[in-house]
Amino acid sequence: MQVAELIEKELILIGATAIEDKLQEGVPNCIQTLSRAGIKIWVLTGDKIETAINIAYACNLLNNEMKQFIISSETDAIREVEERGDQTEIARFMKEEVKKQLKQFLDEAPQYFCSPSGPKLALVIDGKCLMYALEPSLRIMLLTLSLNCSSVVCCRVSPLQKAQVTSLVKKGARKITLSIGDGANDVSMIQAAHIGIGISGLEGMQAVMASDFAIAQFRFLEDLLLVHGRWSYIRLCKVVMYFFYKNLAFTLTQFWFTFGTGFSGQRFYDDWFQSLYNVIFTALPVVIVGLFDQDISSSLSKKYPELYKEGVRNMFFNRRIVAIWACFAVYQSLVFFYFVSLSSSTSRDSDGKMFGLWDVSTMAFTCVVVTVNLRLLMMCNSITRWHYISVGGSIIVWFVFIFVYSGIMTRFDRNDNMFWVIYVLMSTSYFYVTLLLVPVAALLGDFLYLGVQRWFFPYDYQIVQESHKDDADSINTPDSQETKEHLTPDEARSNAISQLPKEVSKHSGFAFDSPGYESFFATQFGKYVPPKAWDVARRASMKSKSKPK
């Protein structure tokens, strides 16, 4: 500063340049929507405290109705100590000030929780104070106060402090953390969180290279979390529970069989049945569910962000859900074994002989394959042609396999246990009656439970499904036309783009919003989408570059 005072004298200002550092399009709406979804958003920035607060207001993180707790090093008392120049005294004094303010705010916060109409809380802290607040003796106080606040803004923080704050929430509060940034100074924060999101912008690709997911703009975080993230959670829960269910139902039939054999070790199913059950006969349908299942559309997922809270509360994967699936698996295994074994004891084949062990086990395995595949259709929220193809194909593959396997015997076979079994079974009416009754009896409990649950104890997404089940018939009603007239230009543009056929998006080459190409595709289908100014300028510059010299 002293050198600058000596040099910068009697200068003539010729001009000045500046970089406009403004929010991207849709950031305030995105943050507001994520807040409605129950997601707490913290801002960790290197800007000074005034700029950080203004950004928080612009992002709808702060408002005038909030009670703001501000911990700043820009106070008169701290300035007096800093003017003395004693670093030891400065560190001791600032630590005491931070501790005093944290304790004061912690004592003050509960009074706002007592009244239901009390204001929300917000914490603003700068980098110098944060350095002392992150010390082991004050860390718990900072975390407790922060978790009680709706918004937290940390300004003038270093990349290391960003990572420390993220780790504090991750390990101290045991919460799932997501960090999003667009610059090299955000890399440590992105790597410290459970999930790292990098924005590919003008500040380089360092954040993208260090992240788990990359997006083009901040507003795409809404689609990533509320749409794709939520779908992924529901699909994953269904896939895990279905694997647990189908293997438990299959294995328990062999367990019940051991009671009749005195635990001698006699196997109930053929070895090839056990080997191919998970690999072929029940493999493809669950993959289709994991890829295509959707409870509600993407537009409804964003319209009702509160549905995201079902995943936060882990409503689809908990002990109660596991117990329900286990109970139905036990019930179905009892039906598979005892229904088939008891009914076969009074039945005869076409030659008048009683059915043997391998006849009964083949009949039971056929019922298992058919039932578990049909049960998968009952758990789907949306059924496409791929569901029918996978389920029907898996059942057909089983019959093709057993026709070939039981119809051919070579000299390498250890015995002729399975030879001609399926042909003997299918020559009797017992096979067809059992194949019809066993799946119905096994799935009756599931059907009743799903009906009662949806009718009397519905999930939030099921209520949304019922509320919008007729939306497909009312897209072009006068009411919807009136609603479109009240949309903002950006909302009208997005709405027009969303009505374009889905197939055209793959021609643009962009992962999300296809810059400059929506207008072209819209005109092909008689729709008008107003182009953005920078799109027009970009295409004009590209044309000028392409002219031959």
Q: Structural class of the secondary elements?
A: mainly alpha
The total beta strand count reads 7
- The portion of residues assigned to helices is 55-70%
Assembly form of the protein? single chain
Shape: elongated
Tally the helices: what do you get?
Answer: 26
Strand order of the largest sheet: 1-4-3-2
Please indicate the count of domains.
2
Distance between the termini: 52 Å
- Rg over C-alpha atoms, rounded to the nearest angstrom: 32 Å
The largest β sheet comes out as:
4 strands, parallel
Proportion of residues in extended strands: 5-15%
Protein name: Phospholipid-transporting ATPase
Membrane topology: Multi-pass membrane protein
Transmembrane segments: 239-260, 272-292, 322-343, 355-374, 386-408, 420-444
Subcellular location: Endomembrane system; Membrane
Question: What tags apply to this protein structure?
Answer:
three-stranded parallel β-sheet; 549 residues; 60% helix; mainly alpha; four-stranded parallel β-sheet; 26 helices; 2 domains; Rossmann fold
In short:
By secondary structure, this protein is mostly helical. Helix content is 60%, strand content 6%.
Describe the SSE topology.
Blueprint (H helix, E strand, L loop, with lengths): L1 H6 L19 H10 L4 E4 L4 H10 L8 E5 L4 H9 L2 H22 L1 H5 L6 E6 H7 L2 H12 L3 E5 L3 H14 L5 E4 L5 H6 L2 E5 L6 H5 L2 E3 L4 H41 L10 H11 L2 H9 L5 H6 L5 H4 L6 H26 L12 H22 L6 H23 L13 H6 L2 H28 L3 H8 L10 H8 L3 H10 L19 H7 L8 H14 L3
Protein name: Phospholipid-transporting ATPase
Membrane topology: Multi-pass membrane protein
EC number: 7.6.2.1
